[in-house]
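Repro:
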Amino acid sequence: MATVRLTKLILDGHKWPGTPVNLGMPTDGWDNTVDNFNTADATNLAFKPPVPIGQKRQLYTDNSYAPGYYTMMYLCFHAFESDAVSETNCISGDYSDGHFWCAPIKQGATCASASMWADTTGIPYFVVTKCPTAGDQTRGGPVAIPCCTHINSDGTTAAANGYGDGYGWFWVDGVCPCKDVTILQGLGGSAAGADITTDALMGHGTVMLEITAATGDLQSCEVSNILDATGLTGFDPASLAIGWICQSGA
């Protein structure tokens, strides 16, 4: 395995629905504790969060490592306390462990029933998870990277008490906004962003996600990797791309 700084990654978020609104950065930033919260601590906001679910906002960052536009999206985060990888479902500043990749919950995932948004027809697109057995991280669907630790949720206990999940801002498109989001700087606090895991042989270009033992790593989006990835036979490289690396990280 190798690593690359987050500012080398450019996300392709066109698979997320909606058009950005011109409202700028929230008061006190993307990691403020009003927009980002656990509904176990704010039960009155469980179905009425302070920001419309699915709202997108696009801004410009002048970080010298990755200047350009980025898009944030307001999503619902769900963790599963009873899941085998429950210890990876919290949100932290340690992005080097490969557990930060969030994706919509797969329809039919059994642990989705613990979400307050679950019903007999499935679960909405805006409920995302880090759990690799419930999420759809590896098949080229939309991915999101959380921007605040206050989004943590305890799925099993929360559901039993009639609430659950957390809400907050996620980076979904464009360059890395680590100048505007402290958690994206990693535990070392680098303006170049946190180190993230990549395949040892990966160069620059389009990338896809591979989940191994609950750890997500970026791989070059090429046919040889697709044939090696479990359950991905028949997919073409373009459909699996979640973004691209702007220069070699190997």
